[in-house]
Model the fold of this input.
Amino acid sequence: MNRPLGITVSRQIMDSQRMHPQATGELSGLLSELIVAAKIISAEVNMAGLADILGLSGKTNIQGEEVQKLDEFSNKTIIKRMARSGYICVMASEENDDIIPVMEGYEGKYTLAFDPLDGSSNIDVNVNVGTIFSIHRRVSQWRQGIDSDVLQRGREQVAAGYIIYGSSTIMVYSSGEGVHGFTLDPSVGEFFLSHPDIKMPEKSKYISVNEGNHGYWSDNMRRYMDYIREDDKPSGRPYSARYIGSLVADFHRNLITGGIFLYPRDSKDPEKPEGKLRLLYEASPLALLAEQAGGRAITDDGENILDITPTSLHQRVPLVIGSKNAVDEAEAFLKGER
Ligand code: AHG
Ligand code: MN
Ligand code: MN
Done:
């Protein structure tokens, strides 16, 4: 078997730190801690599949311990590791109602918002899931962080990315200098650079949207979908439909192959007028990656996702994200200009 001899993710992080003489190494440390958490989650995700096949996924594992639901496991793993990392002052998780404090005496200068396991409805059926993260510099001055430390615009992110647990475990991140992807070699426990400087193809090949919501969409959204289905070879239509139901996996495919993902607002649930996805844990970090890779991320009325100032931790936002030309085109329809 050929071993990859390439650059490890730690090397890449250290190299980019070296390019910033004022850097203290804290962001590098933070990312390294997150990577350890991701490796632990990755191992657990793989075991869950195995346990399923062997029928061992009941209430206890082989050590007689309770098998935790994977999203809960991922959440706890990240919180535990990061709470005493010394690099962050507060966390926010999709799974927790309120901000999560760090251990006293370990307060650092960054903040971490995360979706511990995105696509969790897919866990039991062996379909890709992932962890999404977003890092900001704290704005409060003292000790434990507060809500306003995490309620910052996506534009202010210092770094963001995801780890996708799929046919391989891949980490994709950006700290503002392009987007890089690393693949975990499980036999040596290292992430190796596999996708340097990812650029999203400008043209879209795929469209990812939950068509089951058709009846709840706006007229503009429906007209857009009709247009997408039309036969027009020169413009690449109809786009092929691809919807996994794990945002992180749908986004990853579109990032590599070119495509557009939409979760617009709909009238399905009066409790969720803004659609389903969360600004802090899903839309904002992926928007940074999209923009860094040459793509775009907007709401369904054209606002740049990165320019939205969050007002609450679990704020939802309509999301249109993907290849630049495809998002431009969708925007024109959604605004009623086409
Ligand atoms: P999560 O598993 O973190 O709650 O997120 C699920 C999200 C996202 O991953 C996906 O794109 C979307 O829910 C799918 O929603 P629908 O089932 O409504 O299409
Ligand atoms: Mn999610
Ligand atoms: Mn989740």
